[in-house]
Amino acid sequence: MQRVIRILALVLILGLGALWATAWFGREPGESAGNAFMRQFAALTGREQLPAGPQVGIQLPAGVTLGGPFEMRNQDGRAVTQADFQGQLLVGYFGFTFCPDVCPTELGSIAAAMDMLAQDQAAKVTPVFVTVDPERDTPEQMKNYVGNFHPRMVGLTGTPEQTADMARRFRVYYAKVERPDMSEYLMDHSSFIYLIGDGGRVRALLRPQSSPEDIAAAIRALLPQA
Ligand code: NI
Questions:
Q1: Which of 3, 105, 153, 173 has the most CB within a 10 Å radius?
Q2: Distance 104 CA to ligand 1 centre (A)
Q3: Distance in angstroms between the alpha carbons of the first and the last residue of the chain
Q4: What is the CA(160)–ligand 1 centre distance, in A?
Q5: pLDDT number for residue 36
């Protein structure tokens, strides 16, 4: 029995060693061996793990498509679909206007990234804030809010069904959070930044708290070279 345990331990050590070696040689530029190890380990266990480190764009696994058609209402109360943004690269973020800190920070970064683009580049890009709190985020409320961040920012809201449909396509998690010590509810929500192309299809996913520089770089990488 002891021998079996010893052999198992040896196999485990050799296995982990091999994984470390793979991680060491297979790490992305600028990625630490530890992060590469976690990435390899996650791939092995089949668990989804976001790549850590300075790498910005999150690769979607092959065969996975995100996004697609949507029907919402913009900040002027007009019905819009993905077709209204044809030819534009959208920088999408899902949140809610009552969000105390995360949403304003992320939208501020997106706005700063917009201002880093050359004029002809920025003309092909539209920042879009999609609310996951349509109950409170009326078009009027959205209009006041997005105007605080960037003159070109579009705010999308919809019926609860339209919102749920869009969130499902983009795999956005959101849930109402009510606490007895607060008079107003909050929304818990995922916080990725989506670069969205024609047909509403997601072309790249950026991790939460990406810097304006990283967002701008990811946008430039996706814009057709003119
Ligand atoms: Ni938020």
A1: 153
A2: 7
A3: 69
A4: 18
A5: 54
CA distance 199 to 100: 32
Q: What is the pLDDT of residues 95-129, one digit of tens each?
A: 999 999 999 999 999 999 999 999 999 999 999 99
3-class DSSP state for residue 94?
A: strand
Top-confidence residue, 54 or 183: 183
Q: Cβ distance 194 to 47 under 8 Å?
A: no
96 C-alpha to ligand 1 centroid (Å): 6
**Pairwise CA distance, residues 165 & 72, whole Å:** 10
Distance from the alpha carbon of residue 165 to the mean position of ligand 1, in angstroms: 19
Could you give the CA distance from residue 29 to residue 10 in angstroms, rounded to a whole number?
Answer: 31
Q: Which residues contact 142 (CB under 8 A, 6 or more apart)?
A: 74, 75, 97, 129, 131, 155, 156, 157
Q: Which two tokens stand for residue 80?
A: 């819009």
What local confidence, expressed as pLDDT, does residue 49 receive? 41
At 169, which helix (H) or strand (E)? helix 160-169
CA distances from 115 to 98, 131, 152 (A): 25, 23, 11
Chain centroid to CA 7: how far? 44
What is the Å distance from ligand 1's center to 185 Cα?
12
